[in-house]
Design a protein that fits this description.
single chain; 274 residues; alpha+beta; Helix Hairpins; 3 domains; 5-stranded antiparallel β-sheet; 3-stranded antiparallel β-sheet; elongated
């Protein structure tokens, strides 16, 4: 019993000694970490405001702000470890070896990261642009370090890994798209009137942009009709609604103006024996 009490007293004494020796260091290290958190948040906020005034792209701005915050936290963490008397050289060497192993195991993730940095800083497209790539298309909703999110008019979303985007052929429509409509009229139609009606329909639709100007021209002479190409510009969000509105309006206006929209016809002659 006396031996057990002696062991307990010795342990208590050791704990008290450790508390006296490392307690102040631990307290100071905690204060350093807390200070690092608030300093990092303050510097991140200040950096974000400065980059916003420079009108830097929002994706690149967020990335730089996060990097500043991580660097500040890392710096204060090193200061806290040094205050505790931790030898950083073996720790750094161990982290280097572990990092090499992690890099080999996460090649796909790292390739996404490298491609994400390339996209953010080369800016082949921005949030809000409408793009087509790797068999998918949609409006860019978010660009992160690892993937890019597109939205479709059907309210679905497509998440593409950044490594699938880097190095591929990209079609960037920007923030506006050009419609490709076609209307056919009969050969006996007054073409000046038909083109004037198309221009009027385009001017009356609020979705159609005035700049760039719409392209309206006769594109082909088919077997039973003259084909007019109608290519106005609209914003990305108005692309699908504008197609339906313009087609209906063109049909109704042509009917009102008495302009005939012909249907395909074939004349068949039967030749009998005479």
């Amino acid at each position: 019993m006396k031996e057990q009490l002696a062991v307990i007293e010795q342990a208590q004494s050791k704990l008290i000694d450790l508390g006296i020796e490392f307690g102040p260091r631990l307290f100071v290290a905690s204060l350093i970490l807390v200070a690092g958190f608030y300093v990092g948040r303050w510097l991140s906020h200040m950096t974000d405001n400065m980059l916003a005034r420079l009108q830097l792209d929002v994706t690149a701005r967020h990335l730089i702000v996060r990097m500043v915050h991580v660097l500040v936290i890392g710096l204060f963490l090193i200061m806290a470890l040094q205050n505790l008397g931790v030898d950083l050289l073996p720790l750094i060497a161990g982290l280097g070896v572990a990092g090499a192993g992690i890099a080999l195991a996460m090649q796909g993730v790292l390739s996404n990261l490298a491609a994400g940095l390339t996209i953010i800083f080369t800016r082949p497209f921005l949030v809000g642009h409408y793009i087509s790539i790797v068999g998918e298309e949609g409006r860019v909703e978010e660009i992160t370090l690892f993937n890019t999110t597109l939205s479709h008019p059907d309210l679905s979303k497509v998440v593409i890994p950044n490594r699938k985007i880097a190095g591929e052929i990209l079609h960037n429509y920007g923030e506006i798209r050009q419609l490709d409509l076609k209307v056919s009229v009969a050969y006996d139609t007054d073409m000046n009137q038909a083109l004037s009606v198309v221009d009027e329909v385009l001017r009356d639709n609020p979705r159609v942009l005035r700049d760039p100007l719409p392209n309206v021209l006769v594109t082909s002479l088919s077997d039973s009709s003259v084909n007019i190409s109608v290519k106005p510009w609209v914003s990305v969000t108005d692309y699908a609604p504008a197609i339906g509105e313009l087609n209906i309006r063109l049909l109704e206006t042509f009917r009102t103006k008495g302009i005939n929209i012909p249907f395909p016809q074939r004349e068949v002659r039967l030749l009998g024996n005479t």
